[in-house]
Specification:
It is a single chain. The chain is of the alpha+beta class. It contains four helices and six strands. Strands 1-5-4-3-6-2 form a six-stranded mixed β-sheet, sandwiched between helices. Helix 1 (about 15-25) crosses helix 2 (about 30-45) and helix 2 crosses helix 3 (about 50-60). The longest helix is centred in the first third of the chain and has 15 residues, at about 30-45. The two termini are about 25 Å apart. The mean pLDDT is about 95.
């Protein structure tokens, strides 16, 4: 369910979760992802880590956005998400964190399986 993943060249674990997640989802380097998001942010007049910037970037890469059901937001976790969406590539937002999930496995620098997902981007074929 969880696999350690941290492509940050300095090994940092805080502040770059969006870059780490998208790097994994697109199978590209942390540096390339950082540069791409920085350029997207520049074009939009916003920071690379803003939801609008990385959402626009992912949509341009063939992802679609959806919202997690609100049936039980306090009891539905990333672990539940992995069980429900066991196939495919996802970038999932929790409000304060972003993570990549591939085929039901959470790729992150720490075990975030108990975090509560709010929305997600799915890679379309």
């Amino acid at each position: 369910m969880y696999s350690h993943f941290n492509p940050n060249p300095q090994g940092m674990r805080v502040g770059d979760c969006v870059i780490r997640a998208i790097s994994k989802a697109l199978n590209q380097s942390w540096t390339q992802t950082y540069v791409d998001l920085s350029l997207q942010g520049y074009l939009m007049g916003d920071l690379p880590s803003s939801n609008a910037v990385w959402g626009t970037y992912l949509k341009g890469k063939g992802f679609t956005r959806d919202i997690v059901s609100n049936d039980c937001p306090e009891c539905y976790t990333l672990e539940n998400f992995c069980n429900e969406y066991s196939e495919g590539i996802y970038v999932v937002g929790t409000g304060a964190h972003a993570v990549c999930i591939v085929d039901g496995i959470i790729y992150d620098s720490w075990d975030s399986s108990n975090e509560q997902p709010i929305y997600f981007y799915k890679k379309e074929n």
